[in-house]
Amino acid sequence: MTKRNQHITPHRDGWQVRGAGSEKATSVHSTQAEAISHGRDISRNQGSELLIHGRNGRIRARDSHGSDPYPPNG
Where does this protein have compositionally biased stretches of type Polar residues (predicted)? Predict the structure, then answer.
């Protein structure tokens, strides 16, 4: 499976989950929360990053699910 960052962006029917570089949405949801939940599952499975965009298209939050090269000691 290709590691691809997932983007949550506005869609004419609500909010979409779209892999980086993809023309088509992976899925479309009526709420941003539903799209974030689905996108988070995908990015966890792929070990990629989730980028959450606001209605204006700008990135408002990031959630990294890749391997951490500097894990906390403990």
Answer: 24-34
